[in-house]
Amino acid sequence: MSLWNNKEHRTFLDEAEDLAHPVDCGSWTRWLMGIAVPTSIVVYSVYSIHTGIIAIYGRGGSTIITGDDVRFLGAAYIALAIFLHLHFCWSAHETWWKQVGRLKVLSLLIFLPCLLRVLYHQLVI
After folding, report:
1. Residue 32: pLDDT above 60?
2. Which CA distances in Å does 25 have to 38, 41, 75, 86?
3. Residue 3 domain-assigned?
4. Mean pLDDT, rounded, for 99-123
5. Helix or strand (DSSP H, E) at 65
6. How far apart are CA 34 and CA 2, in angstroms?
7. Which of 56, 94, 105, 118 has the highest CB neighbour number within 10 Å of its CB?
8. Contact 86, 107 (CB under 8 A)
């Protein structure tokens, strides 16, 4: 707790642990984060895989990725979109909550190796 607000200090691990529990949000947030954002991520990923170029925008400019890394990064983005969709749309349902947890782990098991492969190839090789 802080003197100026009543919020307790939360660490990165506290935020990560919240992803393991059902989301408690309104319908606007559920539609935005569960449908609109994942759909835009999937559309961009499929377009990038089709063209063979992904642009990553950041503070220092943009990075253009081509070649095999596009397929792996596109797959990582699609896995991230699946995770967001499962977390915000399906984890609120009591009947689907246990199955959603397994599918979220599966999407992370796809996301992490794909992302690590791209990072290794871009930074080391």
Report:
1. yes
2. 17, 21, 28, 14
3. no
4. 93
5. strand 61-66
6. 32
7. 118
8. yes
Is 80:104 a contact under the CB 8 Å cutoff? no
Q: Is residue 12 part of a domain?
A: no
CA 13, chain centre distance (Å): 16
What token pair was written down for 81?
């979109």
pTM (two decimals): 0.83
pLDDT over 70 at 12, yes or no: no
Longest CA span, the chain: 53
Crossing angle of helices 68-85 and 97-123, rounded to 10°: 160
Ramachandran category for residue 5: left, alpha or beta (phi over 0 → left; psi -120 to 50 → alpha): beta
Query: Looking at the domain assignment, is residue 13 inside a domain?
Result: no
Work out the pLDDT band at 120, boundaries 50, 70, 90: very high
Task: Name the token pair of 60.
Answer: 């220092």
Query: What range does the domain containing 39 cover?
Result: 24-123
The count of structural domains within the chain is 1
